Amino acid sequence: MSIEKDLQKRSNDRCELCGSDEAAIAYLLPASPGAKLEHYVQICANCNNQINDISKANENHWRLLNETIWSDVPAVKVLSWRMLHKLKQFDWARDLLDIAYLEEDQLEWAKASGDDINPDDIILHRDCFGAILNKGDNVVLTKTLEVKGATFNAKVGTVVHNIHLVADNPEQIEGRVNNSMIVILTKFVRKIN
Asked: Does residue 74 sit in the same domain as residue 163?
């Protein structure tokens, strides 16, 4: 049997979210650990459009999450949890998230999409010109830096390869200069390609 046929059988040819009998889409959850039947949800075009463009989301339509968050189908539960996070501006969605329970592996899968991350909480490391720095980037020093605890200075123009980001401080990165791992302030580096 194909995944589509198995989904139709599992869902009784209905949308596994809203119950519509026009469910024709085999939706593979983004950031799934695979592409097997258990990673798909049978959904209708209406749910699909709203999932893919949250600005089109109809609050009343998504009140169905009150039921689907308790589904016995892990993919339905995971998709419901993700949608609740996308709809957190509504009190009922926040309240439902507070009481929802997912097994540890389901929660890990649900969080893999990043829907639960508040964009305001993301720590961004930026160079002296405001370019976003990522782990593994290469930077050049824009100022000669005195390296505490070492017998050398890191000279202006020194290229630092394969930087690491200091997780809890957006103003610091780590990099290897003269075979020593040092902490460098982001305001003294410029990202290079």
From this structure: no
Give me the domain span that covers residue 49.
Answer: 3-118
Question: pLDDT tens across 116-173, in order?
Answer: 656 555 678 999 999 989 999 999 999 999 988 888 999 999 999 999 999 889 999 9
CA-derived radius of gyration, the chain: 24
Looking at the fold, whether 11 and 24 belong to one and the same domain comes out as: yes
Other CB atoms within a 10 A radius of the CB of residue 147 amount to 15
Q: Looking at the predicted structure, is the pLDDT value of residue 42 above 60?
A: yes
Residues ≥6 apart with Cβ < 8 Å to 118: none
Number of structural domains in the chain: 2
Residues 114, 127 within the same domain: no
What span, in angstroms and rounded, lies between the C-alpha atoms of 112 and 38?
16
Q: Is the pTM of this model over 0.85?
A: no
Copy the structure tokens of residue 28: 């593979």
Q: How far apart are CA 111 and CA 108, in angstroms?
A: 5
